[in-house]
Amino acid sequence: MSNLKRAQRAMSAQIKKNLITACRILSCEGLVQGFGHVSARIPDSDLFLLTPRISLALVQENDLLVLNLKGEIVAGNSRAPFEAPLHTAVFNGRAEIHAIARIHGRRANMFSVTDKKIEPVHNHGSFFSGGVPLFPNTDLISTPELGLEVVATLGKRAAILLRGNGQVTVGRSIPEAVMMAIYLEEAAEMLYGALQIGTPVPLSSEESARGKEETLPPVDLERAWNYFKSKIQGR
């Protein structure tokens, strides 16, 4: 086996481990409860890994599916999530995105059924400057057409609310997609709490830009990822 193939195999193995870690973190943080799915690109290919139609708390490495960018299963024996077209649409539409988390944060979901946008009021909310977009259709994203509509609404942002049906967060890596999920729910909780006691003061675009610079450098992303990994050890 060539050194290149060894490196590719090692990278693929690490992505699988990170994907399972993502499943456990999202479950531990209460962002998925029986439903939800996570995916990640396989580097240097037109393939991606996707969790099957199994609770993320229970998914094992050998359950993971391999799909191509047409949405066809090329490896794996489990059933794909009903919303697999969502993942293919995002990966086809956002070349820089390497991981996707489909979650059901309770507090963020409240904002998806009101006319109030999630806007940043603290540093971890900086990633959602300008407000988190809302996809108004209540249908599951089960067709290529709906997937394309979600991608158009998402634009270049890190997250989108699905009306009454959870959220999608994306990232350039698995840790980034997971942290966007955690920060989205945190931003929703902060804003919800602020609304109970007064009038929230959203961060300006300049304040949000500084907050992103302070929160997302690789060393700080790894710091956050390692913390949440430590919480699931032994689970």
What is the structure about, briefly put?
It contains seven helices and eight strands; from the N terminus they run H-E-E-E-E-H-E-H-E-H-E-E-H-H-H.
What average pLDDT do the residues reach?
93
Shape: globular
Low-confidence stretches: none
Q: How many strand segments?
A: 8
Count up the helices: 7
The major β-sheet equals: 8 strands, mixed
Structural class: alpha+beta
**Whole-number radius of gyration?**
17 Å
Q: What fraction of the residues are assigned to beta strands by DSSP? A: 5-15%
**Strand arrangement across the biggest beta sheet:** 4-3-2-1-5-8-7-6
Report the end-to-end length measured between terminal Cα atoms. Answer: 35 Å
How much helix, percentage-wise, in residues?
40-55%
Question: SSE order, as H and E?
Answer: HEEEEHEHEHEEHHH
Description:
With about 240 residues, this protein is of the alpha+beta class. It is built from seven helices and eight strands, in the order H-E-E-E-E-H-E-H-E-H-E-E-H-H-H. A hairpin with a 4-residue loop joins strand 3 and strand 4 (about 75). The radius of gyration is 17 Å and the shape is globular. The mean pLDDT is about 95.
